Amino acid sequence: MTTTSPTFTDPSSPGESSAGGIDQTQAKVGQVVDQAQHAAGQVAAQAEQQATSQLESQKERAVDSLVTVAQALRQTGQHLHEQEQGTVGEYVGKAAERVEELTNYLRSRDVPQLLAETQHLARRRPGMFLGIAVALGFAGGRFLMSSGQRGSAYDSFDPATRPNISGYASPTGAPAS
User: Fold this and answer.
1) In this structure, what are the phi and psi dihedrals at residue 5, rounded to the nearest 5 degrees?
2) How far apart are the C-alpha atoms of 22 and 28, rounded to whole Å?
3) How far apart are CA 105 and CA 121, in angstroms?
4) Where are the domains of the chain?
5) Separation between Cα atoms, residue 9 and residue 16, nearest integer Å
6) Are 94 and 102 in contact (CB under 8 A)?
7) HSE (CB half, 13 Å, CA atoms) of 96?
8) What's the distance, CA 104 to chain centroid?
9) CB distance 160 to 172 below 8 Å
């Protein structure tokens, strides 16, 4: 019987150098992953800061609009009192006070606080939250429709202002153009 002696490889042999190369590659990949995660974190923080800044400016515009609404309600209430419609004037005055309270509430809180309170309300009372959201959406839509252009130069419901494209006489009796 012949016995074979175990073979030992020299650390500088090609088999060992490939293992060292793998370790170096893994280290470099780890560094790249760390750098990518750090960059992603910076981008996310910057995006959050920009979103917060935009929401803060929108909040300030909303507060300014609410101040105008409160002033208009107060003037309307005073006018109603002068017209001897005191009961309605009182209700309008109370509405003005509520709008002013909302304005002060919004001024006293920053955007992250408002978002946290909104999330808390949505979790605690989802039905009320959805109702408020629908009402605000409806009111916002009505406001936008009443304050902006309707998308065309003429009112499509008024036949006198609608262009005649049918070739027949217009409703006013004028021949087709």
Assistant:
1) -90, 145
2) 10
3) 16
4) 34-108, 110-143
5) 8
6) no
7) 17
8) 21
9) yes
Q: Which residue spans within 22-158 are E strands per DSSP?
A: none
Contacts of 90 (CB under 8 A, 6+ apart): 77
Residue 72: what are its φ and ψ, rounded to 5°? -65, -40
Using left for φ > 0, alpha for ψ between -120 and 50, and beta otherwise, residue 30 falls in: alpha
**pLDDT of 50-108, one tens digit each?**
888 888 888 899 889 889 989 998 998 888 888 888 788 889 889 999 999 999 999 99
| Overall average pLDDT of the 30-59 stretch | 88
How far apart, in whole angstroms, are the C-alpha atoms of residue 57 and residue 88? Answer: 35
Residue with tokens 């999330």: 119
Q: Give the span between the Cα atoms of 25 and 20, in whole angstroms.
A: 9
CA distance to 69, 85, 144, 156, 164, per residue, from 152 (Å) = 29, 40, 15, 8, 15
Answer positive or negative: Cα dihedral of 69, 72, 77, 83.
negative
- Arithmetic mean of pLDDT, 129-138: 90
Q: What is the pLDDT of residue 171?
A: 55
Residues of the chain with pLDDT > 70, as a percent, come to 72
